[in-house]
Please model this.
Amino acid sequence: MRELFAKGKRGVVYLDDYKGERIIVKVKNPSSQAAGRIAIEADFLKKLNEKGIGPRFYYFKDDELGREFIDGEMFEDYLASHTKEEILSVLVDLFNQLFVMDQLKINKEEMHRPVKHILVRKDKPYLIDFERCHYTEKPQNITQFVQYLVKLSPQLSEKDVRVSHTILDKAKKYKKEQTLTSLKHILVEIS
Model:
């Protein structure tokens, strides 16, 4: 039985059952002027699933997107309730996912403030909400996420997770040269 789960600017999200599993069904918000956003999300989610990113894609039909329901904690809530080691592991996983997206030239947008875009289930981070994704020659997923982490530094320091003040310099270098080596230079700034 379908039940309302959340309502956003561009989409309305329902919980539903699909082949014996609890799923999310996303449809266009009738008041939204943004055309085709659910179809865009479906296309990017299928592509990113091939790289192990995002909730499992199930279907897109009749302008409805069916995907895995991630029953997890929002990222900032996760930070407050987990250990330094768990947080560092999740951060490395997130950076690796964002690096893959940068390599695919897919910009997610909203990574400078991904409050509702990262869920963590069983110490595994999931990026959600891909309706604003687009292709670009200069994706900014990692650089935006670094900016977000700098703002989160006080909260992270409560868990003894240190974000070095030089991380922004490393992010600028990464922006010019989006390589695995540049990513590693960013990651050593988080301990």
User: Anything to note?
Assistant: The chain has seven helices and ten strands. Residues 84-103 form the longest helix (20 residues). Residues 83 and 146 are 20 Å apart (CA to CA). Helices lie at 37-49, 75-81, 84-103, 141-151, 153-157, 167-176, 180-187.
